[in-house]
């Protein structure tokens, strides 16, 4: 059985569209369709339900998909192990990061590159649930995500830091003389926040509810860059992890304040799939996580 046929099948299941799957595999659509048909003939089972277009996987296809994903991952692991035996790990390490952890990516990337100069890092911004799913489907090698709230299953985790929330308002909006922010005055502002599909928002809402508060944002987004852009433009305030606050130059447009009654900090860390043998890329990610020298702005996890 050719590995390429399994790659066609996995790509089609992921993309849900023949043309997009063919583009992802760098082949023509007829080539991909012929490859899927050849795989079905070899297995003696129909894997894909289709009628001029992709409809979905058959029951046999759903059952076969995890094995195809694992087979591809094992071959990739074999190749990386052989490369590493020569003393230099090559290839691409695929990292998924929740938006709240994006400032940590820089520290991780520098540490990873020092130990593996020939390795390429590919970073995707994903939700915590998407990271867990992508790890299980062998579409990621590692993830940066929350460890305690909705913790991912079947992973090895390295705690990195404890996230603390900061209030951000535009200078001149009434907070210039404040040293901290109180929840009632913050919740009275026209807030822009992450949408409810993001785990950071779900943690935030749960903490608010535990203290008898609720929030009704005037705008939502899936990116802290978008939230900060709204605040800078005027008319909004927001709440961001301390790592983002550290990226805003001192004395600039923003007024950044801690909360006078902060909610419990949330642990963030690196996770890789718990499997044996562990891939060389997962091992490199774990080693980088253990070796990161964090700045003082991050609280210890």
From TrEMBL:
Domain HTH lysR-type: 1-58
Matching Pfam families: HTH_1, LysR_substrate
Domain of life: Bacteria
InterPro entries (alphabetical): HTH-type_LysR_regulators, LysR_HTH_N, LysR_subst-bd, WH-like_DNA-bd_sf, WH_DNA-bd_sf
Keywords tagged on the record: DNA-binding, Transcription, Transcription regulation
Xref: SUPFAM superfamilies: Periplasmic binding protein-like II, Winged helix' DNA-binding domain
Sequence similarity: Belongs to the LysR transcriptional regulatory family.
Entries under PANTHER family matching the protein: BLR3139 PROTEIN, HTH-TYPE TRANSCRIPTIONAL REGULATOR YBHD
Identification of the protein by name: LysR family transcriptional regulator
Naturally occurring in which organism (per UniProt): Sphingomonas oligophenolica
């Amino acid at each position: 059985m050719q590995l390429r046929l399994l790659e066609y099948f996995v790509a089609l299941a992921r993309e849900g569209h023949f043309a997009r799957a063919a583009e992802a595999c760098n082949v023509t659509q007829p080539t991909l369709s012929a490859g899927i048909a050849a795989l079905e003939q070899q297995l003696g089972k129909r894997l894909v339900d289709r009628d001029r277009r992709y409809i979905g996987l058959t029951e046999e296809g759903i059952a076969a998909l995890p094995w195809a994903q694992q087979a591809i991952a094992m071959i990739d692991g074999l190749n990386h192990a052989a490369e590493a035996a020569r003393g230099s790990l090559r290839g691409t390490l695929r990292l998924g990061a929740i938006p709240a952890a994006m400032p940590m990516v820089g520290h991780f990337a520098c540490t990873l590159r020092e130990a593996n100069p020939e390795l390429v890092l590919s970073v995707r911004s994903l939700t915590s649930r998407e990271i867990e799913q992508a790890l299980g489907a062998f579409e990621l090698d590692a993830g940066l995500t929350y460890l305690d709230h909705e913790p991912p299953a079947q992973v090895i985790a390295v705690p990195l830091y404890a996230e603390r929330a900061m209030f951000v308002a535009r200078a001149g909006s009434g907070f210039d003389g404040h040293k901290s922010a109180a929840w009632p005055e913050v919740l009275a502002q026209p807030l822009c926040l992450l949408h409810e599909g993001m785990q950071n928002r779900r943690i935030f809402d749960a903490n608010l509810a535990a203290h008898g508060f609720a929030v009704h944002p005037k705008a939502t987004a899936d990116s802290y860059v978008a939230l900060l852009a709204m605040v800078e433009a005027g008319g909004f305030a927001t709440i961001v992890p301390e790592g983002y606050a550290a990226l805003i130059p001192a004395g600039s447009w923003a007024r950044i304040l801690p909360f006078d009654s902060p909610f419990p900090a949330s642990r963030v860390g690196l996770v890789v799939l718990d499997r044996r043998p562990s891939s060389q890329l997962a091992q490199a990610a774990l080693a980088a996580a253990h070796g990161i020298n964090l700045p003082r702005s991050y609280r210890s996890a």
